[in-house]
Structures are given as C-alpha cells and as structure tokens.
Amino acid sequence: MSLLPHQLELLSPARDADIGIEAINHGADAVYIGGPAFGARATAGNDIRDMERLIKHAHRFGSRIFITLNTILRDDELEGARQMAWDMYNLGADALIIQDMGLLELDLPPIQLHASTQTDIRTPEKARFLQDAGLSQIVLARELDLQQIKAIHKTLSPSTSIEFFIHGALCVAYSGQCYITHAHTGRSANRGDCNQACRLPYEVMDDKGRIIAHEKHVLSMKDNNQSDNLRALIDAGVRSFKIEGRYKDMGYVKNITAHYRKLLDEIIEEREFSEQPLARSSSGTTTFNFEPDPDQNFNREFTDYFVNGRKDDIGAFDTPKTPGRAIGWVTQVGDKWLEIETSDKAAELHNGDGLCYYDLQKELVGVHINRAECVHAKKGIWRLFPRSEMTEFKDLRKGMEINRNRDMDWVRSLEKKSSERRIGLWAEFKEAANGFTLTLTDEDGFAATASIEQEHQAATDAAKAEATLREQLSRFGASIFSVNDISLTLSQPWFVPASALNQLRREALAALETTRADGLVRLPRALPVEPPAPFPEDTLTYLANVYNQKAHDFYMKHGVKVIDAAYESKEEEGEVSLMITKHCVRFSMSLCPKQAKGVIGVKGTIKAEPLQLINGKEKLTLSFDCKPCEMHVVGKMKKSVMNQHAKEMQEHPMQFFRTRPTPQKPA
Q: From the record, what ranges are coiled-coil (predicted)?
C-alpha cells in the first residue's frame, strides 16, 4: 500500500538534492528525483551521496523519496538499471517510478513500484492491469476528465493510489506517445531526450494548399494549474498530487510546493469533522515567510486542460515564452530608456526585472532592465534603462501595454530561508529518585525519554522556578520540533540549572529522532496476482515502447501474442503517428465538424480533412480521429537518422528488441 485512503500526498519535483530538501521544507509529502541514470531527463542525474542526504532529510518528516527509473531500456542497459535500483533501495529510497515493463522481469529489490506517466494510463482496464502486475501507485494521463478518473478509481483496490499532475508544463502528446524527436534527430523522448518540437512555430496548411495559420505555436499548450479543482479531484479518487518540473529551479519548487501545501491544508482542515476526514501523508506543519503565487514563476498562462471537459483556450499559440502580468503602459521612449506608468501606483520596479510586450506580429519581445528609476512615485512613473540597445525593441511605442515576467524582488526573497517545517510534540518533565527525566511524545505517537542525575534543590521562588523550567524546556529552535505543551510532574518546585536542562533536552531530542528513524516503515512492494493478469489487448504496435527482450517476455507472459518493436528500434520506416494527442488544432481554430454540427449553413461543409504543419523544411501531417476525439501528427523517420543509426551500430553495437532480423555488417 502506498497511501491510506484518507491520506493526501503532495508530490514535488527535484532536479537535485538541495532542491529536494527545500521541497520537503516547504511541505512536500514526497519528492520525485532522478537517480544517477535512466531517469527520463537526460541531464538530470544525481550523485549517490547527494541522494543519501536527501533521503535522510525526508525521512525525518516521514516524507518519501521516489526515484525516476522511467526510460525505456535497451537489453544492454538492463543490468545497469537493476544495479541502480538496488543502490537506491540500499540508500533508503521509497519507490521506483518506472515505464519499462522489462524491469518487472528482473531481480529487483523489494521496493515499491509506481507507474510513470510514460505508461499512458487512460482506461480502467490499463490501470487495473498495472495494479495486478504489482504497481502500487499509478499516475494517470493528464488528458483525463473527472468522470474518467472516477471510473478508474472504482476499478482499483483501496491499496492502489491514484496520482495526478496538478501543475506545470503540459506535454501536448499523451505521455509515451510522442516520437517526433526521434524521427527528426535520433534522440528519444522515451529516453529522456525530447527536443520540444511542440514549442516551435508552424505554418498550418489545409488540404487545398491554403495557409490558415502563420507562424503559430499550434502544438504548444498553456501550463497546467488545478488549484481550483483539488476538491473535485479528491472526490474523484486522486490521492497523490503531482507537481511537474524536474528541470525547474529552486524558486519554482519552493513557491509551487508552498502554494499547493496551503491549498491542501485548507481542504484537510475544512473536512476535519466530516464523515471522511483527510490527513497529510507526512508529519509536521509548514509556515512560510512569503505569500505563494504561481504567477510569479515562468508560465505560459494557465489552463486546467481537460479535467472539466474540452475547452477552446488550452493553447499558448502566440508564444512559448512566459508573458507575465500586465504592469502598466509606455508613456515615453528615449534613445537609451523608456518610461512607463504603472497601473498599480504602489508597484515597484527593480534593477534586473524582466519586462515584455507583444509587437505588432503578436510576438513576445523581452526587455531586461539594467536600472530602474522612480520619476514620480504618486503617479507611478518609472524610467527604465534596458540592458540592450533601444533600437532592438521592435514596435515599442507610447501607449503600448507592458508586462512584467520577472520580479527581482520576488526572486531574491526566495533565495533566502523562506519556510519552516516543524513536528509538534508534548513534553513531560518529571522528578526521579536521583534526578529528572524528560519524555517527548510527537504528533505521530513516537516517544523518547532522557534522564539526568541532578541533586534536588528547592527553589527559593516557586513561580520563577516553574517559568524558568518551562522556558528552558521549550527551546526547540534548532530542531525540527515545536512544543505543543509542557507538563511538570514535581512534588515541589525545584531549581534546575540551565546547563542540566539543555543537556536533558538535547538527549531527549536525539533519542526521539532515533526512535522516529527506527519506526519508519518502508513502503511494501505489491505482489503481482497469480496467474498473471491478461493484458487488455493481444497485439502491441510500436506504441507500446517495447525496447528489450525482457519487456517482450513480460507481455508474452500476460497473454499478448504479437509484439512490435519500439519506434527506437528503427523498424517503422514509413509514415506513422509520431504523436497522439487529445489537443485538436481543428477544434482550436473552430474548424471542427462537431462544432459546426448545429450551425445553419455550415453543417456538413466542415470536414476533418488532414492539415499540414510546416516549419522550415520539416513537414508533418495532422489527421483527425473524431470518434475518440484525438489528433495524430503523422510523419516518417529521416534518412539521416537511419544512416546515423547504421553507422553507430557498426562502431558500437547495441542490443535491443527487434522483430526483424538484425542487419548484417557489410563484408
């Protein structure tokens, strides 16, 4: 079991151990982070010693560390992945997040396994199969709505936890179903090396050769934000709330973790006396030295995507950059400066702020401020000296609206200590035959006692002696604890030297930390059902991402009869779906046949004919599957990628699953 049915888990990302530690300090119940390799982010590996430091810190609060081992693996990589799994287990990691089912055929440690978003879980049947195969926590596809989440929740046992992305960048494809990077570059999104073709600008051409959109980022989504849907997601069965962002910086993780910590704590508090009370899955209470604000971090504006059904404003088609918030408008433009009037006269600008505006082509232009001078405080007039020459700012003119997308004052505030996380405890100070004892009992029920030999010395001032005892015993400032109450069990007021009380408190705290560490229960590995549960389908295409023989063996064991090799095996040489997505370009441009269904004079004239995306020499075809309401981006693997692969195979032979004979080396 991963989470008890009443527990909520805030799951934060970490690029490295230091960010992970701050995620814990800002209220994360769990952190997911890449180990030394195989973590679906090609440049986000972490050193063993750093991992150990993070795991120890997390476990002090009962928080968990999940290791991302979620790439598809070649046969010659399986042993390295197996060894890494054991290394992480021996360090104390709590779970592995996996995509490649071949791992389930290896001698893995008894560590809990979670299904990565890359496993593409959209149906109750797929979710139930992964549960029956031995996975304890599954992250659902971001594209699902509340009814679909509920349907999946109903089919799972209470011991399986549903995880859902609540914030961050959105991958436009169903995760694990995008091969554009591999087709065009030979790199692989399924192996942590995506080139983000979805963020590029494209010409959109219809089947008659007409341009219907020019230089638009039609595959670029706004960023995910489920702040307003948390209660509905809880009621639908979600228990782990996942923040995207293993490439993000410290400020982002601090701010977004704090934002959702506050929201989830509010929900836990309001449901305290309901029929189904909730609790956080780790210990302590977090307080912040700042007011969390998701708008302060890089974002492409926000959407709640498909959670409440399909909407027409999910795309960031004008720019993949962060537009920020409107702050004012231009009043003058000089040869080395611009002057703006702020809409909020109390707003302050700072050296280093980032501003931006949309030029006449609706492209976002950034303005990095070197120096900001207040000209007229009451009127909110500021003179700004940019880092770049004024001639570089296209279409900048009087009356133009200006946004701020980087507030240096905010950035600096998060560079300091910005939170405190404390575990509540109760202290009991008692006299013993030859001294005193201090027993500490924390909010989780862990208790520890320390004793000290000390002469019983009557206090001359009873009230002062009791006040001094309480003050000295409540000094938990340097620890992770805060005292809820102190009880004194004494036959009469005693004078106890401060040095003795400090020693007693230190020893009791050390003993409590040890007791907590010893009492931490490792998450149990779920056992697969026997006989092996049948996979929902008996035929798998390249979309199943089978890249090694062990993965093939896994699916065969579960009743699959035909198994194609992963796209990365280079066996799909013709045109195939390089991306499958719930996003529909036709719908976003009001060209969807379903939208036109009831419109008089339009009905029947709009059809789901293919469109073409063009970026330079790259051409992709959009085809529309209207029954499930999905779009396919169709293309083929470049010859240069095939040629480079053939060359690499000659120089450094690699082992991976194929369905066709291995190409022979030239004589």
A: none
